[in-house]
Amino acid sequence: MGSMGYSPSQSATAVTSFMGTAFLLALLGGFLSDAFLTTYTVYIASAFVELTGLVILTVQARTPSLMPPRCASPGAGGAACEPVSGAKKAVLLAGLYLTALGVGGIKGSLPSHGAEQFDERAPRGRKARSTFFNYFVFCLSCGALVAVTFAVWVEDNRGWEWGFGISSVAILLSVPLFAAGSSLYRNKLPTGSPLTTIAKVLAAAALARRRGGGGGGAQSSSNGAVIDRAPSPAGSADDMDEYCKSGDMEEISISDAASPAAEPSRELALLNRAVQCQPPRHGRRLACTVQEVEDVKVVLMVLPIFLSTIMLNCCLAQLSTFSVEQAATMDTRVGRLTVPPASLPVFPVTFIIVLAPVYDHIIVPFARRVTGTETGITHLQRIGTGLVMSVVAMAVAAAVEVKRKDVASRSGMLEDSGKPLPITFFWIAFQYLFLGSADLFTLAGLLEFFFSEAPPRMRSLATSLSWASLALGYYLSSVLVSVVNSATGRGGHRPWLQGASLNHYRLERFYWVMCVLSSINYLFFLFLAVRYKYRNAGVIKVMRTSL
């Protein structure tokens, strides 16, 4: 808004579009890691792409000829700001979306790279992998804490070029830090496009002809045995990893021969035709193994869970858009210190930094003793907890907005006067805390859920679904803003999310709509979760210890 002349709604759309693109590109990073390159290579390349984007933004912020002319603030009575356009907008978009490409590549490769370092065939390795995902989110929050405090202070007091410059140095330093462990890393060898396998199985099942009336079932030609899936997470692992030394780094080769599935499972039985009835004309080209069919079934069964998390991430998008704009109208002083509105995410990231170790070292061990299972709290239970918190967060956000506008009305400050309202910005902290908790429970749960459930050859791509859910949540937020404005602006009425200032918006009504949609979404997730059967073969009981 301040540098590029965008209105509040245009700014919110620009931010959500950028964030959505960055997270959606994680699918590209995951696909390349599984199909053609290693996670190690994708991370290094993505870091340099992100560095290029940040350097472009630094140069633009430092060069007045690449910036739009400054416009007067509303209180100064100047003309309305014109959004950036032409070549200057092209430079801005080039910097932003190169940065987004780099961010996507890193997020698509780094979580699965870290998780591959643990031996999932041993209980100790699986527990350590779960701890890794918790501390992965913890470290993301530590970086965010530096970003919303130190970097924001530098941007506000020294200029945007300094903020972008600090980010450029940070990503540059991350490369040698990451490369320092090269001799110790285990790297999974790429096995070709997982999308090819998915397409082949779907095509084979569609083209297959039933033979003997049993093509759609899961009958065995010998004893009729079928594979069944457990109703809760298992500690057992897929033993399909073979290890070999290559250079200085240990490489993981995925081999189907290690533990092939003998018979197809009962779920999605129509896909069993890809194995039991080969297509007559393309038998060799579309020949599928039982393991390939089971892999595709797993992917299809996790997709509804993936879809049910998009609404939560739509709620999270409010943290970087309307919630920041709300805080900008409030009193952000803490003693003699004035907190920049962009530093408001300090509340959720601080809460995550505190909660992540507590969850990993206190809550999970206690849950393991109570339930007698290796996981203690299942992945879907953890995700469901985050969804419930997002519902509460939207209700709290609506109540706080009602309070904020009531203060503005009683103070005669509904018109934008440029002065902060006589209400502390700590009221906004409540919705940030609930959404921060939802983010911790859901993101770490999703990362581990997709990694542990996915076939080994598709793990990077599957883990990237966690970030794709964030991306679609940001896009959905932009769509909802447009739909709400279109629906409420009919008949000569002013749209809920338009006006000269945020005080003229009907933001509380928008938040209530989000609350209702989130509640419906949770019921949809609950319907899926109680019916989902985990991929592993059973629940490993841990030894109960006397207290």
Automatic annotation (TrEMBL):
UniProt xrefs under Gene3D superfamilies: MFS general substrate transporter like domains
KW DNA-binding (keyword) present: no
GO MF terms held by the record: transmembrane transporter activity
Residues covered by region (Disordered): 213-239
Keyword Transmembrane: yes
InterPro entries membership: MFS_trans_sf (IPR036259), POT_fam (IPR000109)
TM segment ranges: 12-32, 38-59, 132-154, 160-180, 298-319, 339-359, 380-400, 420-447, 467-489, 509-530
Membrane association type: Multi-pass membrane protein
Coiled coil segments of this chain: none
Record GO cellular component, one term: membrane
Pfam families: PTR2 (PF00854)
Main location: membrane
Keywords in alphabetical order: Membrane, Transmembrane, Transmembrane helix
Subcellular location: Membrane
Superkingdom to which the source organism belongs: Eukaryota
Family from the record: Belongs to the major facilitator superfamily. Proton-dependent oligopeptide transporter (POT/PTR) (TC 2.A.17) family.
UniProt-recorded name of the protein: Protein NRT1/ PTR FAMILY 4.6
Protein species of origin: Zea mays
Biological classification of the source: Eukaryota, Viridiplantae, Streptophyta, Embryophyta, Tracheophyta
Gene: LOC100279849
